[in-house]
Amino acid sequence: MIVEEGPGWRFSLDRTRETHALLLAGEDWAAEFTLQEGHDLARAAADLEREWSRCSANLMPEEELCLELERGELWVQLEGCRQQRTLRFVLTPAQPGRRGVEGAWHGAATRALMASLRLLRQGALTDAGGVDASPV
Q1: I need a labelling partner for 123 at 20 to 30 A (CA). Which of 21, 47, 105, 117 fits?
Q2: Residue 5 neighbours by CB distance under 10 Å
Q3: pLDDT at 132 over 70
Q4: Are 1 and 12 in contact (CB under 8 A)?
Q5: pLDDT, tens digit, for every residue of 24-82?
Q6: CB neighbours of 5 closer than 8 A, spacing ≥ 6?
Q7: Parallel/antiparallel/unpaired status of strands 65-71 and 30-33
Q8: Domain boundary assignment for the chain
Q9: Dist. CA 60–CA 92, nearest whole Å
Q10: Cα angle at 119 between 14 and 88, to 5 degrees?
Q11: How far apart are CA 111 and CA 129, in angstroms?
Q12: In which region does residue 80 sit, left (phi positive, over 0), alpha (psi from -120 to 50) or beta (all else)?
C-alpha cells in the first residue's frame, strides 16, 4: 500500500483491492477510484498541466487562467494564477448503478496531488518497488 498525503490532499494506492484500488481525498472529501479512473484523471491532469505551462508564461502577475478538458465520463479543470492553482474534476459515469464523484484540490495541494498522479501515470508507484505493468 502506498500513501502520500499533506495538507488538503491524500493519495492512497492499494493494488490488492480488486475494484477500487485508489483513494483520492481533498480538504473535506474522499472517494475511491478504479485504476482506470485514476489513470484517466492522471492523463487529463497531465494534458492540462502541459497546456498550462505553455499559456501561463504569457500571464501578467494579476491575471488568471482557466483550462477545461472533457473526455468521456470525466471533466477536469485547472484554474488559477502563476503561483496558485485549483484542480477540479467531475466523474459522471454513463452506466446506470455506477457512482459519480466530484472534488477539488487547492493551492499547494494541487501541485502535490498532481505529482502523485504523474507517478501513477508513469507507472512509478508500485507496492513492492518493482515494475508496474498496468496500462497507462
Answers
A1: 105
A2: 14
A3: no
A4: yes
A5: 999 999 999 999 999 999 999 999 999 999 998 888 888 999 999 999 999 999 999 88
A6: 11, 12, 25
A7: unpaired
A8: 2-122
A9: 35
A10: 85
A11: 23
A12: left
Tell me which H or E stretch contains 76: strand 74-80
Residue 11 burial by Cβ neighbours in a 10 Å radius (0-12, 13-18, 19+): buried
Separation CA 22–CA 13 (nearest Å) = 5
Q: Which CATH number is correct for 2-122, 3.40.50.300, 2.30.31.10, 3.40.630.30, 2.30.130.10? A: 2.30.31.10
Q: List, for residues 90-126, the tens digit of each pLDDT value.
A: 999 888 888 899 999 999 999 999 999 998 888 755 5
**What cell numbers appear for 60 in the block?**
501578467
What local confidence, expressed as pLDDT, does residue 77 receive? 98
Helix (H) or strand (E) holding 85: strand 85-91
Q: Which amino acid is at 94?
A: A
What is the rounded CA–CA span in Å between residue 72 and residue 94? 9
Of the candidates 26, 22, 41, 39, the residue with the CA atom closest to the CA atom of residue 109: 26
Q: Grid coordinates representing 107?
A: 493551492
